[in-house]
Amino acid sequence: MPAPLSLRTRRAIDDRIDGLREQFGPFPVVDATRLNNPEFFEHGVEMFERGQRGAAGARVTDDDGRLLLLRDDRDPETWVLPGGGHESGETFPETAKREVREETGVDCEITGVWRAVRKRFVRRDDPQRRGYLLEVFFTADAVGGDAGVEPDRLDDGETVLDVRWFDEVPANVIPVVTDPTAPPVV
Fold it and tell me: Molecular function terms in GO for this entry (predicted)?
């Protein structure tokens, strides 16, 4: 009999965190819980069963120390780090590099882990049904490409409104941009 979903997913996510620590050294891990409607919960289970373990992105800087940020249609007034869904067969660093390229046009080299979020997802109508996914933000150096919005690079349903390099962090950013231990926006 297979282990319960919560145990299987927690073990898999903790193994990924351990592997990233072996590769990159220590980094903060923030825990978060999200209550999901039944359909969205089952979507998370399906993602996990297909080998998708969450999401990854990067805090990319260039040779001048500028920070790469974007705005998207989910919260058009707020600047965020580029990132998106992990795909089956990818490592989390590969996901981050792919997502940065797709969303911004910039190629990057991963240098470390900024922070990880161990996300517990709970089925709202049955709180005993729960699982875990992982969100990792890496630190990275820009190594090529030109920052800009190119709709042809984006996944269906994804809308990036603006991409920019910043000498100083703007005031309207999500907290993780400046604080790796900040509570996640869920």
Answer: hydrolase activity
